[in-house]
Amino acid sequence: PSEPLIFERGSGGRRAMDFAPLGAGVPPLTDGVPARFLRNAPPDLPELSEPEVVRHYTRLSQRNFSVDTGFYPLGSCTMKYNPKIHEEFVALPGFSRIHPYQPEETVQGALRLMWELERWLCEVAGLSRATLQPAAGAHGELTGLMLIKAYHKAHAVAGDPPRDEILIPDSAHGTNPASAGMAGYRVAQIPSDARGGMDLEVLRRSVGARTAGLMLTNPNTLGLYDENILEIARLVHEAGGLLYYDGANANAILGISRPGDMGFDIVHFNLHKTFSTPHGGGGPGSGPIAVSQVLEPFLPVPIVEKTEDRFQLVYDRPKSIGQVRAFHGHFGVMVRAYAYILAMGAEGLRQVSEDAVLNANYLLARLRDLFEVPYDRPCMHEFVVSARPWKEHGVRALDIAKRLLDYGFHPPTVYFPLVVEEALMIEPTETETPETLDAFVDALAAIHAEAEANADLLHHAPYHTPVRRLDEAEAARHPNLRWRPEGGEGRP
Amino acid sequence: PSEPLIFERGSGGRRAMDFAPLGAGVPPLTDGVPARFLRNAPPDLPELSEPEVVRHYTRLSQRNFSVDTGFYPLGSCTMKYNPKIHEEFVALPGFSRIHPYQPEETVQGALRLMWELERWLCEVAGLSRATLQPAAGAHGELTGLMLIKAYHKAHAVAGDPPRDEILIPDSAHGTNPASAGMAGYRVAQIPSDARGGMDLEVLRRSVGARTAGLMLTNPNTLGLYDENILEIARLVHEAGGLLYYDGANANAILGISRPGDMGFDIVHFNLHKTFSTPHGGGGPGSGPIAVSQVLEPFLPVPIVEKTEDRFQLVYDRPKSIGQVRAFHGHFGVMVRAYAYILAMGAEGLRQVSEDAVLNANYLLARLRDLFEVPYDRPCMHEFVVSARPWKEHGVRALDIAKRLLDYGFHPPTVYFPLVVEEALMIEPTETETPETLDAFVDALAAIHAEAEANADLLHHAPYHTPVRRLDEAEAARHPNLRWRPEGGEGRP
Amino acid sequence: MRYLPLTGADRRRMLDRIGVSRVEELFEAIPPEARRSQPLDLPGPLAEPELSAHMRRLAAENRHADELISFLGAGAYDRVVPAAVRHAVARSEFYTAYTPYQPEVSQGVLQAIYEFQSMVCLLTGMDVANASMYDASTALAEAAAMSCGATGRGRVLVAETVHPEYRRVAATYLAHQDRELVTVPMKDGRLDRHRLEGLLADDAAALLVQQPNFFGILEETDGLADLVHARGALLVVAADPVSLGVLRPPAQYGADVAVGDVQPLGNSLSFGGPYAGYFAVREALVRRMPGRITGATHDEEGRRGFVLTLQTREQHIRRERATSNICTNNALNALAATVYLATAGPEGLAEVAGRSARLAHAAQARLCGLPGVRLAWPQPFFFEFTLKLPRPAGPVVHALLQDGLLAGLSLGRFQAAWDRLLLVSVTEARTLEDIERLVESLRRILAAA
Amino acid sequence: MRYLPLTGADRRRMLDRIGVSRVEELFEAIPPEARRSQPLDLPGPLAEPELSAHMRRLAAENRHADELISFLGAGAYDRVVPAAVRHAVARSEFYTAYTPYQPEVSQGVLQAIYEFQSMVCLLTGMDVANASMYDASTALAEAAAMSCGATGRGRVLVAETVHPEYRRVAATYLAHQDRELVTVPMKDGRLDRHRLEGLLADDAAALLVQQPNFFGILEETDGLADLVHARGALLVVAADPVSLGVLRPPAQYGADVAVGDVQPLGNSLSFGGPYAGYFAVREALVRRMPGRITGATHDEEGRRGFVLTLQTREQHIRRERATSNICTNNALNALAATVYLATAGPEGLAEVAGRSARLAHAAQARLCGLPGVRLAWPQPFFFEFTLKLPRPAGPVVHALLQDGLLAGLSLGRFQAAWDRLLLVSVTEARTLEDIERLVESLRRILAAA
Known about the structure:
The complex is a heterotetramer, with two copies of chain A (492 residues) and two copies of chain C (449 residues). Chain A is α/β, with parallel strands linked by helices.
């Protein structure tokens, strides 16, 4: 059944929140706050009792696919299982009920957690220090690019051309160029070569005195580990540039290949992907970045330092780029990542990557007959296939995706990376069973049979979801972005 | 999508539970436990990882209707909203992590809660003491009947005929006669009169020297308050019997009419109905009983007593019927009921009953056109209508119930009480909005139109539920009550 | 009021539709003498923040197992509860549902119960199990009553080594049915087989035993069922479900009924409840079983589904001739047990049981190294054991509390003659360090006397 | 390992199917120099009980707001969170979902975000809001950058009375875009209108102000927008969302952009995050807005449904020309805010805001009764206020901690000249008794000096 908007529920005068009377001795609001600052009437929020609020959001929740309810092979998103006990840790008053400005002696446990997590992430990255502040992967990218800028500024020699260019492969996540733009850089795009790696020839021609750095995901968004990574790093470094590692795909390399050892100077991790913190339907994430020694002085403030047995937040770092976020970052997300690393240990993390890669290769092997495989190599934790052959039946990747919903599966990422036609980007993660992967293959095979028999069936899929295929064009053409109270704009 | 059995998931060798090594210094099991006591192999439980366990039970949960997801007008069950914060209270370590045998000085908060709750329930009942031990309504009934037996035994005069008979109206819940049977009583059934109350003439003829007591729900299962209650009480008491109040319907009378004031000697409350503790898909409930002064000595042990500012469990009560359950009752359920009473206060509880009765009468008024109303009086918190007129379309109460599922509603109780043909017993509770009641009426009206147009549609309802109409006859004829491992009985 | 949606305007509109002018008119059937005019004498109402503060204060007046190192058991155990269990029982589709009377929208609860029944059968080796009882004590009492019904006899024997509270409950139940509960005395902490033979006349309906017994000791079960069955009686075994991870299942030594408490399987201590009882029988007894049973069947399209079944045993249909009056059971606690067992798996459950027993033996060895401390009876035990102390156990327990220890249960509360007995329980949640703390504290306290 | 389902047998079968013999073969693309042979130097693995014990120990090394009476605010507030909010965000269909890229199975998140956007508009009076930012500071920085883009200018003014950390973040963002952030000095704790006029040249893209400002003071907004707009600049207002329960909405005094942090709406303190920023604009700016936006549309059967929309602004399509790089946002915190506002309703939110302000004024009056204690600037304030103490605030705060009080924020951390300033925040979670404790403790400490 459909669920009305919260504004379409409730009725004037209902309340889900009540208060004890304040008692005498507390003057009325207007004694202290002059009337000119006050609004004429409260905002036009809905009025409901607690049973109505709870039922509404419980029902809404059921209209949502999630890792807890099904297979979610969304490429590049690492939708792995999120341990239940982590939610309990985060809710401990000692973590959830502490204020960012409490005196340091009252938050030693929190600071210790941040200090240790920083070190563990550095160990995974193969780098020397990290900042936990960035709120998400893209925020980490932006911060990393600021570090690159600060570095070059500090090392600039008068008369040199400005280092204002960032090299980014054509298979990169959209956030890479967007972050470069936000940080005031020009972007030069490097194409992929025939094996799905970066085209070395083009790279050689592209690096130079204006190269500030290169952003790379490795394994890349094709799920392929760039075999030339050492050569790439050498080329960029020789040109005076720095290398930024987009950690979105780090689930493939834990304990197996460290970005620092590949030659990267900066790494961001998506704690909400690699380190198993839940994605919250769009966030919060967390995008800490680890850096090599030369970049340490520029890290944002504050940073946690340890002196003897005491932890403190240090703001006084003269070369720092400054602050990229108020307070200290997404602490609640850090708690979960910290617990995850501790639960897994070094062997566990390596097993994570081995199993993630094994699951992906198994699924790839089983899907060969149904799709075109654009780059035929062992993949890492994810892979991209093309639905180009389905076109002969008039079926596109989007149709396959929508039909998968009817089979109870979340579809893969589609139409990305852009370098593959009709791309399906599939990441099973290590927390899925082979039985689930087999069932997914069976579903795709069944859909393939449907495509051959009756393509039109697929054009109108899904059928068994809370709503049918939605008109996204209409939404963009005639934006309806909010509810409005009857009779206009409410009562401000 | 369907969900396999947990035994059909998983694979040999998977684990969702792991342990740190025990270390040296702890001898192997077989050092201490002789082999003759040990089983040959562990039980054939499923083997799964944590992600599989969590997904399985999360998916199962979604295949279940609940108060949090929809209107649940199941007559006699009082499916009202259960405040969310109560679940947090119960989980506080100070409540959830205390052992029933802890020294009393370490559980003063728990004992205080029980002591106060006992007093509050007595106040609502209009009686003088209570036991919180009974685990559910039926357990309260059994305990109450034991008290009646103990009372009569204590007051028996040599030569009197045995008081071995319990009077129960024909509209009573099935647990009443079952409990009487369990307590070793014979049951005499009293029919209902034309106004839906107890037939006084039959009662007059039935009470006598063998009458141990009478069990009554008031309002009764027709949702009607028995206007003759004082006369009923007088008749039973004059004959030397006691009156037992089945509190299943107490949601109608909070602060309005107290069973003690009606003349009852024993009252059970279903905390999971009247006092808003959730029903847990079938339990746990809690069925405390309150009693009049003459019955106090017979109450089960232990009982909480207060001396000065200290609370203690008292077991030494020579006239007690003994113990009806190990430990002290469903403490976790008590915590919720205690919080509920405190949240509502006296006025709030009275409002609960007024609104419950108002909602029921409103719904009854709106449903008059669709059904037959067997007893045309204002109802209390619930009412019974008959779908007899629908028979002309070949539609039965069961069909209506099943079709309501397609409209997103839980059906009312059907075919109960037995005194009404094609009964639908409807209890909206006070936590539903008039909008929901109106939508429910609309659904029934739509179903009525369907019955007129195409009765066969209803015979095969529901259509949109996780499974279609289930073959209950097959289940009873060929009982399949458990999963069995392949190749027989497992490996004990 | 936050839980009540009706507003004044709602109420007026609804009264109009009903055709009365005041809500009081709806209550006119109540005779004035039974009508209450003044408000009830109750505290409140409290807003959520005040309510929360009050409840937290009350909880803080208790010292709990996160603060104290607990060796208390005797039927309620401080075991590790996996987070997955809490997640499942916190799903409000489970906990705010009623008994699954409409199976088409109750497959979640029904399937979980079917899984529970199956798991109980796997643990105990029995053929069939029901959907749960209130707890072990009432399950045992119902087993006693059922045995009387099945045999047509009115005398039930119970081993003195069964939990004293379980025995009391069975006695209460049977007394009110004009049936008799007879205690078979123990010898050296175990059922006295010789006395049993004497008491096993042809009118005995059943023998009730517990394994491991109340004192933690393993009862010798060889030949027991033969003895009981030879006199036409049933053997009812109360068995801790965790122990069945490694101990022989009751069916294997001839039990006709197995009962127990699933509290140790993922349910919190909660000051004694709610827990849930399990109840399992041999095939022949299925239609005599009390309580709800879930069965598998099919829907109109041939898909598997689950329903409550064999309801003709129950009170809705059979009324005073029902096999029992139990109606609401403890389904949510049974669900917790089900998720727990799915999480543990065979190896996990064996490890929980085995660790507990191994740690218990380590603890017993160390404790019995203290002067004057010995096992009450030198018998094989599992994860609980009964010590005899050189002086009354009650004051010792109180003294150990000062060291943050719940040392165990002083058995003097049940019988004056047991006043030096201390029942110590060791679960997998304890560590060797915890045990060392107990040993050292006890050493100090005994020395100080 | 409990989170990893693959068994040895699974792995062997899968390797066979792939056609390799060892998993290492799958990693052969990695050059040996970039391959790790020895294990990482990390602690663990820990089983769940050990992990749990460790995390609880760590949490216990912090003193939290259940133990301490807190008057700390400055952008993060100890407000009452209704249980209904925790229930909603604990629904794992919400928290274990990804960004709703497949709308047909993401209506839960999408509709909730649509409701969030609507509520933000109702609070602020703005036309459109997005689906959330990371927090207030980054929302403000994005607003500054957006203003530059919209006006084609590179200079942004910010009032000195804006939260110092927000100003720092905006400065960092702008500096890397070769844009400039210029501080407009304050006078008596408020924006100096005179200095503003001087700094508002024709190259200013925007003025950033905060209401109530960092010091808790209410900025005079009359005529402010006219002044700013007259020079072609935009007015960006950072407003506490709770205060908007009773304070004038920014749109009404001419704001073009309203931003803020929804932490106070049902999100826990969590040592500073995750919170969520809100971001709302006038209609004309909608296609310049950063971040995700949800819109209503219809499905094939004409039923209403929700989708992510206006994605051409975003990095997936526009790449380096996107309005911002923000991708993952803070949807779950926005959900908490949505459920909070649904729970509070208009009257509830007004009461939360009003109570806080009333208690704050009661606290200020009592505190300023102490010798040498006064308001730093005598201006109208809302629920926070800045005291000037007779001596440095830092040591006073530490002394009050001994009495279990978090007395507020010593502003010396931001500027040496502010070292006697104490920013005190009073929310509806405080009581008059809490305030009395603060007053008495402070009295004693000041007297002892």
